[in-house]
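Continuing the batch. This is chain 6 of the set; chains 1 through 5 are on the previous pages. Same settings as before, nothing changed between runs. Recording input and output for traceability.
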Amino acid sequence: MTAPGRRSTTFSRLLRHGFTDPSAAERLLESAELAPVRTDPVLLDALGATADPDLALSGLVRLVEAQDGHTAQRELLDTLIAAKPLRDRLLGVLGASAALADHLARHPSDWQELVTYEPQDLHPGVTEFERGLAAAADPVSLRVAYRRCLLSIAARDVCGTTDLAQTAAELADLATATLRAALAIARGAAPDDAAQCRLAVIAMGKCGGHELNYVSDVDVIFVGEAVEGADERKAVQAASRLASHLMRICSETTVEGSIWPVDANLRPEGRNGPLVRTLSSHLAYYQRWAKTWEFQALLKARPVAGDLELGEEYVATLAPLVWHAAERENFVADVQKMRRRVVENIPVAEIERELKLGPGGLRDVEFAVQLLQLVHGRADTSLRSGTTLDALKALAAGGYVGRADAVQLDEAYRFLRSMEHRIQLYRLRRTHLVPEGDADLRRIGRSLGLRSDPVVALHREWKRHAAVVRRLHEKLFYRPLLDAVAQLAPGESRLSADAARERLVALGYADPAAALRHLEALASGVTRKAAIQRTLLPVLLGWFADSADPDAGLLNFRKVSDALGKTPWYLRLLRDEGAAAENLARVLSAGRLAPDLLMRAPEAVALLGDGDGGGLEPRPRAHLEQEILAGVGRAAGGEQAVTAARGVRRRELFRTAAADIVASYGTEETPAVADQGALVDLVGGAVSDLTAATLAGTLRAVVRDGWGETLPTRFAVIGMGRFGGHELGYGSDADVLFVHEPREGVAEREASQAANAVVSEMRRLLQIPSADPPLLIDADLRPEGKSGPLVRTLKSYEAYYRRWSLVWESQALLRAEFVAGDADLGGRFIELVDPLRYPAEGLGEDAVREIRRLKARMETERMPRGADPTLHTKLGRGGLSDVEWTVQLLQLRHGWVEPGLRTTRTREALAAACAAELISTEDAATLDEAWVLATRVRNAVMLVRGRAGDTFPSGARELAAVGRYLGYGPGHVGELLDDYRRTTRRARAVVEELFYGA
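Output for chain 6:
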C-alpha cells in the first residue's frame, strides 16, 4: 500500500513514460484484463513510445475486453509481449487513432492482421489489397474489409516502416482496389447493365496522383462506351446507373460507417454535366469548352477500375490537349487566379489553421509544381508524373527548379502532409484544419517524433515549413530564369535557353529573348548589386507577369536600375521596405506615363517606400505652393525658377500616378480600392492642386524676373473647365481666364502691356522643351474666344458680360474658380460672374432651348470621324459631356435658390441636386457611375499610352492594360467594353429625360 501523501512508483513511472493522466492509466493497468502483463516493463516502454500513451492504453484494454473468451485474451497478450513487430504496430495504431481503436473493438480478431511481418507485407500493392477485399460481397462487408486493410497501412505508417510517399501510394492503391470491388458489387446487382456497356473509372486528384490521404474525397471521371452491337444511348444510361451505384456503395453511411465520398464533379460541366460520357464526347468538350483548371486537373488522370483499355485510351486521347494547355492565352494568370480564389474562399477564422489551402499550405506546393509541369511537360516527357513529389524531383533534375529550392519544398511538403495524415488518422475524418487543443497538438507532435515539448515544437516546425512554402512557391517559377543567365556552381543544372524562353512566353512576355538579355544584365556577375538583384527579381518577375505588359515592366526596371544602381539606397529600399518593390513593379508595368515620369528623375523611386520619402499620399496644395515658391525664390532667373517649379510638378505627377496605379491594382497586403469615385477624386484633386501651385510659382518667377517684387497691375488666374472643377486628368490642359486691374497711378495701357507680357512669358516658360512634361495653358474660354484679348481688366469683363454675354459663357463660368495671383482680385471676379452663372429666377426657356441646341450640334459636329459613339468617353453616348451638360443645366436653372448647387465640381453638384430632389437617387447614381467610369477610362488611357485620348486603345495589349487598371483580369477585356456600353447607355437614357425633356 502506498504511504499517505506519497505518489506510487507506478504513478511516477507513468508520468516519465508520457502519460498525461497517470491516475486513470494506473486504474486501467490494475484492471483484470491486463493482469498477466501489467508488471512487464516491455508493455510500459511500448506504450510510452506511442503518440498518445493514454489513448493507446485505453484502446488496448477495450481490445482485450472484446476478445472472445479467456484463451483469445491470453493469445493477444502473449503475442503482444513476445512479438515486438506486433507490439509496435498495434500500440502505435491505438495511440494514434481512436477510430481504428473503435474498429478493433468491434472486430476484435482483426489485430491478427498486424502479426504478419514478411517482406511482401512491407509494401503491398493493388493486387494484395484486392486479395484483402475479395470476400466482400456487399457494402457493409466492404467497409469492414477496407478498414482491415487500412489498419495495416496505418500500422506501417506510425511505426516508420513506410515513409509519407509510400503511405500515400498505398492509400491510393487501396482506393483503387476498393473502387474495383465496389464496381464488381454494382455489376453483380445489375448484370444486364454490365452486359451492354464498357465503363472506365478514371481516378483524378490525389487518388489519380498516387498520393491519397487517409480520409479524402476520391475524385473520379467516368467514361462509357457501348459494347459491340449495343445502342450507344442505352449503353451510356446503363453505365450511368452502374457509376451511380458504385458511388453510393463507397459514400453511403452504414452501420460500419462510410469509406469515403466518391466525387465526380471534375467531369465536364461539373455537377451539371452527365455523369458518364463517351470518349468522343469528352474529347469534344475539352477541345471546345474546357477551362485552364480542367487541363490542370487532368495532369493526375489515371485509369483505375472497370475497362482499363478504355481508360488508357481516354488518357492517351486527352494527353496532347493537356500538354498544350500552356499555350492558352492568360494561362499563368488563370492558374494563379484559381489559387487566389481558393485562398479568398477560406473563412477568416480558419485561414491560420488551414494546412492544405491556406498561404504556405500544401496547395501552394501542388499548384507551383503543376504550373511548371504544364509549361515544360510538352517538351520534356520526364515531367509527366501525377505525383507531386516525383514531379518536383524531375523538375529539379531537369534544371527547371533549383535543387536547393526543390529540397526545401520536398521537406516542407512531406512534413505538412504527414501532419495532415496524423490529424485525419485520429478520427478518420476529412479535415485539413490544425486542431486547437493542446492534447490533440501533443499527440500529433509526438507522432511526428517531436517528444520534447511537442506542442511548442510542432507549432515551430509547422510555421517554419509553411514559411518556406510561402517564400518559395511563386519564386519557384521565376528563380530558374535567373539561373539560366547567371554563373552557377559546377555540377548545378540550369534551365536551358529554350526552356527559359518557354517559361517567359507562358508568363506573357512577347519578346522572351529580350527579357533574357535584361535578366542577364541585371543578375549576372558576383557583385553585391547582382546578388541583391537575384534576390529581388524572382518576386518582381511575378508582379510584372500580373500586368498586361510584362516586357515593359522588366525593361523599365532595367532602365531604373541602370540609372540608380550605384546609389547605395536604391536596392536597399527595394530589399528592406516591403511595399517599395511591389509598388515599383506595379508602376513600371502599368503603362508608359508613370515610367516616363520616373525615368526623368529616377530618385523619385524613394516615394514608393514606407519610410521618409513622403509616401504616395498626395500633398496638400499649400505645401506644394510653399515648396515651389521656395524653389522659385532660390533660382537665379525666370527660366531656372520655372524649371524648379516644373521639376516639382513632374515629381508630384509621378506620386499621383503611382498612388492611382497601386490603389487600382492592389497589392498582396492591400486589395484594390473598390470606390472608383474616390480614385477619380484623388487624381482630379491632386493634379488640379499641383497645376494651381505650378501656375502660382510661374507667375511669381515671371513677375520677379521682369518687374521685381511688384507688377504694375494686380493679376489673377481663374481656373476654368476641369481645372476649375478640380477634375483635371493626367493629360489635361489648364483652361484659364486672366484678369488684371491697374494699380493706383499706373496708366491702363502700361498695365495692359505688363499683363499681356506676363501671360506670354508664363505660357512660353511652361512649354520650353525639357525633361519635364509641359503644362499647356488654354485661354479659349475667354470673352470672344480666340478672337478676344488674352487678358482683360475686371471692368472690361464686367462691361462684356453685361452687354454681350452668351448663354454658353454663363455655362462655362459655372466652373470658374480663383487659382493663382491676387486673391482679392480673384474674389471680386467670382463675385462678378456669380449672377451670370446662377441667374435670378433661373434660366428662361429660350436659354434652355439654346443650350439644348448647342449640345445637339456638338454631338453631330465634334465627334471625330470614324469614332464609335458608344465608346467615346467625352462626346459619346452617356459620356462626360452628357453628364456634365445635364448637371450644369440643373445648376443654371436652380443654383440661385439651391446653395448646394453653387459648386464647380460635377459630382458635388450632382449630389446636391439629388439632395434637393431635383433628380431621383437612382438617376443620380446612374449619372455618377457613368461619369466616374468615363473619367477613369481617360486616366487609364493616359497612363497606358503616355498621351491623352478619349477612346479605348485599339491595340490588344494596351486595351488589356486599361482593363487591368479598371479591375478586369486577363481575358476579360470584352466584359470591360460591355460594361462600359451598358453603363453609358443607362446614363444616356437619364440624359434624354432630364436634359432634352424626352
